[in-house]
Amino acid sequence: MPKCFNAKYSEIGWGDVRGWLLDLHPSDAGGITLWLRSDGGRIIRREIPWMPKLYVAGPRQRLGELENILSERFRTSIVEKSVIPGRRPVEVLEVWVAIDEKRWLAGWLREQAGLELYNVDLPPLQEFLYSFNIFPTALIDVDKLEPLDNGEETEYDITVFKAASLDISTEPQGPVRGFSARLLSASLRYGDEVVAIDGPEDHILHRLEEALDDVDILLTEDGDSFTIPYLYHRAAVNGLRLKLGRVEAGPRRISSVTYHSYGRVHHRFRAQMLRGRVHIDTSNSMLYRETGLEGVLEVARTTRVPIHDAARYTIGSCMSSLQYYQAYRANILIPWKAGRPSYMTARQLNIADRGGWILDHTPGVYWNVGELDFQSLYPMLMLKHNISGETVNCSCCTGHNIPELGYHVCSRWRGIVPRAIETPLRKRLHYKKLYRETGLEKYRKRADALKWILVTSFGYLGFRKAKFGSREAHMAVCALARDILMKSVAIAEEMGFRVLHGIVDCLWVSREGAGDVEYAALASEIERRLGLPVSYEGRYRWIAFLPSRRHGLRPANNRYFGVFYDGRIKCRGIELRRKDTPPLVRKAQQEILIRLAESTTPEQLKNKAYECREILNDYVRRLHIGEVEPGELSITHTLSKEIDSYIHPPRHVLAARRLHRIGFEISPGQDITYIVSGGDGHYRATPTPLPQESYSAEFYTEYLRRAFEDIFKICVTDVSR
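RE: above sequence
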């Protein structure tokens, strides 16, 4: 029986111990180390002898020859696995290999002619979780290593883990923080409780290590890029062996990476993963920024990805883990080479690759408007119609047809993709229901986290690196969505409603005298007829659909703002919603919308719009008399490529070049924050880590006026309907 070593973590016998899985990582002995919080409140460390496996498919004689060669060093066997989902298993060679040798062996095997490799890039820690059917934060029988709950559970308690935020202060050394700067203080925050530590450096480091003793999840703002490596460096300078994890070994490190996702470039700093204690750099985790700790842990549980990785992975990688898990449990191998080629004529491509419907609005202000939204429409269609890379245009049956395209979907095999998204779909709908009933933020954050997974599940269908996707599957979902939207419009018009606007899975409708009951009845009727969940989002007192800035008579389909009868304000596409808007402009526009929301008639809306000039003038006045903090004027843009590759560099690139010259490491995908200075149309960007220069009141005044004019014009023009 495996033993738990390190006396501090072996206080509990194995026979009847239960614990919540906190962390796992490769062990020095070649297996996996587990860290659990016991139901008695203590930490359990357990070493599990384990190795990942890779598989080789090919002619039976060739596999036998290869087995004879590999068996001298590796544990091997001939087993039956499915290499194509839905097809009968075939004989393949199974090879047990050490974690650090898997890639090397795969590279050697790839050079052998006539062989196909599988499960090569399946991450070892995820494979370990799949093999024991466990997941992070799961309650586990530690002796048997069996789960005592399941990943579909929505009522689970994460308060068994103690989370704390770490902040440090260093001596000033100019605009660039360096490792040579002396540590001045450190503080740990547990909810409302703060532990502040100052004094000599060695004292701060020693006390910090003690204060971390009972912390399970450590949150930092720049731990990957600076704080964690800085603290280890300062410990070495002081001749100390710092232990920020639960063992003296330093953090596991994964290289920084720049990657593309949905048309944007992102950068992930080198990960600093502590052993036995989860470290989340909140500035290096999109998932944490969007959904907080609740969202990160929900994704880790649902997708069976270690918490360290779930916080840093792309959403696509987390979603892929759902598919890998389903394939693993179904005895299906995961191909090393992803995707399959698609061949179409230009005519076929023109018919098939059209995306979702957008029903143009006529710009203007509309009163008494209801908003209907299909809940997770694309994932729902994928689940309902069994859409997966291997099910669309399968060769085993004629299945059921996809409208417009002439494609068919398999009726004999349930696809990997529908299997993978069923649990997050069900859980998200349940979390949204719980949030409506209780108002508890944890349910909203969990639902939002799963929304990211589900959105990505559709995009991944057509991604060239998707293991279980295809272009045909992606286009089939779009065709189904177009069909659904057109049928919804027909139902609405049949019931006497006028469709004002539609975007893919959302409709804005109106009927004179209709109230919440009538709009909700429309949503229920569409849901009943089409068999898909439809949410009635609410009734606007008024909503303004904006025209294009470049072409004033054309609609801008995702730019609108309005107020519901319950007082909620909703807006899309305006400055308030943009990442690159200065906080000052965002705040001014929010005040304007709050003032406009008081309107109950078209005439009152027009009057309120004129009153909003006072708000604009007040912000302009503050700009010109210097009552604005520089931080309120910061603008953030993302670098899309190397800073030297721009021919006509925009302002944020010029700011990035200034940072690079004074020692900052700059990579594509990083956010660059700057303030605009100068005047008379000759503006320059000052990156915010540098000493502040005077800002350009002229530039920011024009920014404020532009944000005001869009809203003002639509409200005072006589186009209310």
